[in-house]
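Folds vary. Our protein:
___
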Amino acid sequence: MMAELELIDITKLFGEQYALNGVSVTIAAGEFVSLVGPSGCGKSTLLKIVAGLTAPDDGEVFIRGERATNVEPSSRNVAMVFQNYALYPHLSAQRNIAMPLAMQKLGLLTRWSPRILQRRFAPHAVRQIDEAVLRAADMLRLRPYLDKKPGQLSGGQQQRVALARAIVRQPVAFLLDEPLSNLDAQLRVHLRAELAALHRTLEATILFVTHDQEEAMLLSDRIIVMRDGTVQQIGTPAQIYGQPANLFVAGFIGAPQINLAEVPIRQAGTVRAFGAEAVLEAGIPDAASVTVGVRPEHVLISAPDQSAEKARIERLETNGPTIYVHLSVAGLQRPLVARLEGDQQLPLAKHQIVGVSVRPDRLLLFGKSGRLLAQDPSRRPDARRHA
């Protein structure tokens, strides 16, 4: 599959501070790729470099195989949608959506003239523009609002106008810089669904910056996790969540956060944590301890018995069908959090003593450098018992 966007060793300095440090990314045609990471990690800077709004200090940008590093933004054929909508307040929604095509097809004076004059002096171009605007408006259910100005529209409607303005350009790629962050929770969910439908309908290439990991997980074909101007991991949502490359990715992705504990390495490379035992793969560098992680949904709660680690319930949080159980476990400095869904729920109460356990294959092991370590499933105690 042809690369729609390719970034090679992109570096950007602001003073002596690296905003981006050797970032390389390839995005295929039709992919929806999200950039996530903490504030200041370089997400928006990378997007602006693709758009041509910021020049890199080093590295190359390719769009459909053509070098675009020094190409003007207007000639890159990418469409950027901003967090603050960036609409012309004195123009109707129709004319805001039409503006990219008006800039292409109408002369300097005609594009700003009243529509009656535009139709008189450039009827063919105006007809093409109107047809494109109506197609985009129908995709986003905007036709009833085309005569309204931005100040007369809700935040969600304004954002849809900004998206429609990008659609009419028929760009190589859409660059979306936190387009949903100014909306309330209900509108975010609604616009998220529209964005997913738009991606399917247009088969568009989308590079999406968001601070909301849930949005990234739900919308993306792949996710790029960034930190301090560097790429920490690129992968599918399942890979990022289930096999995080390092401790930072493990802790950043997932809500509630992953449970972590530092535990000693015992004889024959075995590690015991959260009521389960795992064996490190041979060849792992010598170390006294590892950090073990387990996702809250993988913590199993049962009646206290000999086979499970004992824990005391410190707090219960109910969120619809989901219950978050905060548990005090001997030897752990922080509470262990379990997430129970639907029929997993047991009669539970604060201060109750319960058993907790985890399947060994659900444990994630991280070395001193923070990198994910491999396990040897063939040498697990449970594997030997059932061999």
Q: What stands out?
A: The chain has eleven helices and 21 strands. The longest helix spans residues 185-202.
